[in-house]
Design a protein that fits this description.
Layout (H helix, E strand, L loop, with lengths): L7 E12 L2 E13 L4 E5 L6 H8 L7 E6 L2 E2 L5 H9 L1 E4 L11 H9 L6 H14 L15 H12 L6 E5 L7 H16 L4 E5 L2 H5 L3 E6 L2 E7 L1
Parallel strand pairs: 3-8, 3-9, 6-7, 7-8
Antiparallel strand pairs: 1-2, 1-4, 4-5, 9-10
Helix pairs in contact: 3-4, 3-5, 4-5, 5-6
The chain binds adenosine-5'-triphosphate (ATP) and magnesium ion.
Amino acid sequence: MSVATPVVELTDLKKTYMLGKIPVEALRGVNLKVERGEFLSILGPSGSGKSTLLNLIGALDKPTSGKLLIDGVDLSTLNDNQLTDVRCKIGFVFQFFNLIPRLTAKGNVELALSIADVTKAERIKRAEGLLVSVGLKDRMTHKPAELSGGQQQRVAIARALANNPRFLLMDEPTGNVDSKTAEEVIALIKKLNADGVTIIMVTHDQNLANEAKRTVKVFDGRIVSDMVN
Ligand SMILES: Nc1ncnc2c1ncn2[C@@H]1O[C@H](COP(=O)(O)OP(=O)(O)OP(=O)(O)O)[C@@H](O)[C@H]1O
Ligand SMILES: [Mg+2]
C-alpha cells in the first residue's frame, strides 16, 4: 500500500540573500513535511525567515540549496512554464488583500478563474458559489472600497480558492484587520480546513498560531519546535 505523498516536503532548505556583497542567511537548513488536510501555522519573530519560507513553498523564489518538493515534484527540475503551473495550483492570501479596486467582489474572483479553461457563464457561477461559501452572498457586486477589511479578506480567500488549489498559503491573513474581524476571518479559515482545505499560515502572533492544528516555530532561519496544538 502506498503512503500519501506530502503536499510539501522540505529537506535541508537554505536561502541566502546577497545584500550587495554581504550574505544574509534567511534560512539555514529547514526540514518540514506537510500532509494533505493539515492546518499548519509557522510562527516566528520579525526577520526569522517566515516570508522567505512561504515564498519558496509558493514557488515564487528559489532556494540556495536543499530540496523542495510540492506534491512530490522536485521544483528544481521544472522550467519556468512548469513553475507557473505549480503556482496556479496554490492559493495565496496576503496581509494586504491585494484586490483589484475597480472590480467588484465577483469580478475579482472571476478574474482568478479566467486563467483556467472555463466558459464565462461557468466562471460567473463558480465565482458566485465561492463568494457564498465565504459568507458574502449579499456583497458580490460591491467593490473593495465598499467592503470592510474582513469582507475584503474573505473575497481574497474566495479568490485564492478559485482554481481548487492543492493548498492555501497565507501570510499574516489577519494582520490588517481589527481583532473582532480577525475572529471572523479565522473562523472562515478553520471552516475551510474542516472542509478539507490544506492550509499553511505564517504569523508572528502566538494567539493566531494557536488556532492552527500544528505550529512550527521559526527562529533565525531554523525550525526550533514543531508541535500539535
Ligand atoms: N530580498 C532580500 N534581500 C536581502 N535580505 C532579505 C531579503 N528578503 C528578506 N531578507 C532578510 O532575510 C531575513 C528573513 O526575512 P523574512 O522576510 O523571511 O522574515 P519574516 O520572518 O517574514 O519577517 P516579518 O515578520 O517582519 O515579515 C531578514 O533578515 C531579512 O532582512
Ligand atoms: Mg514576513
